[in-house]
Amino acid sequence: MFRRVLIANRGEIAVRIIAACRELGIETVAIHSEADRSCLHVELADRAVCVGGPYPSSSYLNITSVIAAAEITGADAIHPGYGFLAENARFAEIVAECGLTFIGPSAAAIRLMGNKSEARRAVQASGVPVLPGSDGPVTGRNEALELAEVIGYPVILKASSGGGGRGMRLAADSRELRGAFDAARMEAEKAFGDPTVYLEKYLVRPRHIEFQVLADGHGRVIHLGERECSIQRRHQKLMEEAPSPALTAELRSTMGAAAIAAARAAAYVNAGTVEFLLSAEGGFYFMEMNTRIQVEHPVTEMVTNVDLVREQLVIAAGERMTVPKRKSLASNGHAIELRINAEDPETFAPSPGTIRHLVLPGGPGVRVDTHLYAGYTVPPYYDSLLAKLVVHGRDRDEAIVRARRALDMLRIEGVKTSISLHRKILDEDDFQRGDLDTHFMERFLVRG
Amino acid sequence: MFKFQEICELIRLVGESGIAAVEVEHAGSRLRIEGPPRTVIMEAPAVAGVGPAVPVTRPASVVVSGTTSASPSPGVSAEAPETEDEAGLHFVTSPIVGTFYRAPSPDADPYVKVGDSVTKGQVLCIVEAMKLMNEIESDMSGTIVKVLSDNAQPVEFGQRLFAIRPA
Lengths: 448, 167
Fold this sequence. Notes:
Number of strands of chain A: 20
Distance between the termini of chain B: 30 Å
CATH class of the largest domain in chain A: Alpha Beta
Oligomer: heterodimer
Strand content of chain A: 25-35%
Largest sheet of chain B: 4 strands, antiparallel
Radius of gyration of chain B: 18 Å
Helix content of chain A: 25-40%
Number of domains of chain B: 2
């Protein structure tokens, strides 16, 4: 096992990784920007190094500085968390070249899954269903139009190097597609420095269902069930739950096997997530694989009792994963995660500022992953996630009741938060029935 | 929180430079010095269960607290002799994380030593990061008063490396 791990991240996930390291007896090194001197991960880690200025490009994204920090502190491995350098294949490569261990998959797996059209081709070759569409980039407008005739409208154009919902264009008919093609290429070029786009059939009311996978270097690849992440706004997830209200045991087993096949297609080792779209008719299609620990990993932890970050460390150290072998990883109860962001619940504008008052809920079935403390100033330079409120109940109804009471006990004063928005979502009939799809928030916000 | 001598140093610098105001943020505290008339306002972060601000230091004539402002007399630094050292000095800080080396190779002479005159742009030391030797140049002409890190020691981004008395 590692002696000392550098955490190339900040905020709640840095704190989460420190917790896992501490339980394994591993020393931790925090890195921070000048704006994050008073961040909780800096205080909790055994050592801390300032690596740059407030802007991520100067600090958390600065590969040279992150590696230098690992070198001067004698760290033997780097955990990238999520965001920042987590899915940067070049970074993973450099870490290895410097004789350190990258706690995550190989650079090759990151690179393959980072290229959406390559990833699609690779998993399809392994028998994983993909949305009907171009097998790789579409280079010309006419090619796009011909293909759309074959697979049927509506269709969506996506940036090959994209993600997070940027560089996507929807077309309901050939006239719209004609206009969307150049716009999508231009947007992709601007956002990702790569104009390559691909085309797919667009599902009208799909659910976002993702499978957590774990793979170790000894050939074992397992899935830990799904997370339903259909409640999103502009492709940013707001609330996630496990299990999905839509999956039967049979569908879970089929989709889980596909997730494992996708991971194997990339010779994947470590924790990863395979994202699918599930149509209203029950068809499921590979969307992408996230080659990192995800924000919403705690819902899986709550229903499986597996510490995913601990497994990441164990696997990266070359050991076998410690998840007991079971016939099926039947999940235990139901978990819901609410992302509490520092943002205006009406306009979604970020709301940095100083936390004047903080009360975190506890009691049965409640977990809060956060880096907040009273007096902490939320800087304007990073994402707005303040806390993840995760609840667990024997079934979905109990989890919803628990989520509501935990929200009522949560007090964050000093910044605007999404607490009131979550309360409204929990009260929504469609939500309570489990009738979800990725357009849930659009309809919800229109209704007001 | 700012150290008392840092505040004094800033007051002196503002006075000497004749600029209207300087605002510095560090570790959650904000310090603003305007001159003239000179005013010191320090906003401390609110701490749960404590008042909105905590007085940090309470020297004879400068009150540093939440919204209290005071006009320090010109004699302020004379009352705090420990600030004499740093007053008027310029600090060269490390632009990167890495290992600090005073000389280009283990058996070579250091680039500079205390008492040396340096010119702006002159190499003062090396900070090594990822096997790359980054020559750190002086951003001011003057005399080296202090070398603030030992040879072959790790340094952080923004860490003070040299104190220079400007020429």
